[in-house]
Amino acid sequence: MAVIQWFPGHMAKAKREISEKIKLIDLVIELKDARIPYSSTNPMIDEIVGNKPRLILLCKSSIADPAITKEWIEFYRKNNIIALDIDSITNYHVKDVQKYANMALKETFENRKKKGILSKQIKAIILGIPNVGKSTLINSLAKRKATNVGDRPGVTKHQTWIKISDDFFIMDTPGILWPKFEDQIVGLKLAMCGSIKDEILDLENIVIESIDYLAKNYPDMLIKRYGITITEPEDMLDQIGRKRGFLLKGGIVDTERVHKMFLIELRGMKIGAMSYERPST
Questions:
Q1: Rg of the Cα atoms in the chain
Q2: pTM, entire model
Q3: What is the pLDDT of residues 199-234, one digit of tens each?
Q4: Residue 35 bridge partners (DSSP)
Q5: Which helix (H) or strand (E) holds 128?
Q6: Rounded to 10 degrees, what is the CA torsion of 220, 226, 232, 237?
């Protein structure tokens, strides 16, 4: 399997700046991709934020397997972690984010009250990997275009304070990956979900691994979408190319076109809502 790495300079700078400003923060809102909550967890975040109160948001829930997302929410509950599954595009559970932020800061508010401080103002920081939906969520919460949004990793380059309400402020930050993926399967899943720029990827390998995973875990979706027979990855891609008419001279399948189309449809939920890992993995 090809080694997947991506750690541009603005990510290293963001890590340093977050570490410097974390003392100003009441709450860490950690965004994870609902399809890959494990693989979209940056191991550097624990080092950066320490013991700050935390709220986990499982984003893009509309394109994740709902049954598996429920497993993740239950997993966090059993581990005394406050978590909420959301979808900023459909606004699913977005209105509940501030309520859950208050829940995560219950102890903080109690400590303030003991000191005679009645304020329940929250200064939160949003952290997460690239393209997980940070800017879209902030715009949904603020009910305005407060940040730039792009369906590609690396859009947010600077840290910005956003006023959500009189008592709720959020610092937006660039998405941060980590310098080295110890487990290349993690890199693969991030690539499948579009969290790493395609320009640095071996797309052929990503597509083959992706369709193989779907054939083993969601075969009915592949059959319904493409009308193919479940066989080996290369053969299934060949079937798809022929059914879509992606052919070169001599009746040869245009594999590059098939690969690009398949990734677009995989990431865009054209094939169906699916997840790539469970809490036990």
A1: 20
A2: 0.83
A3: 767 889 899 999 999 999 999 999 999 999 999 999
A4: none
A5: strand 122-128
A6: -150
Cα-Cα-Cα-Cα dihedral sign, residues 109, 112, 118, 122? negative
86 close to 93: Cβ distance less than 8 angstroms: yes
Rounded Cα distance, 175 and 276, in Å:
21
How many whole angstroms separate alpha carbon 174 and alpha carbon 42?
A: 13
Furthest C-alpha separation in the chain = 80
Q: How many residues does the chain have?
A: 281
What gap in Å lies between CA 274 and CA 104, rounded to an integer?
Answer: 29
Bridge partners, residue 126, by sequence: 29
Give the DSSP per-residue string, 38-104: TTT--THHHHHHTT--EEEEEE-GGGS-HHHHHHHHHHHHHTT--EEE-BTTTTBTGGGHHHHHHHH
How far is CA 219 from its chain centroid?
Answer: 24
Phi-psi region of 170 (alpha: psi -120 to 50; beta: other; left: phi over 0): beta
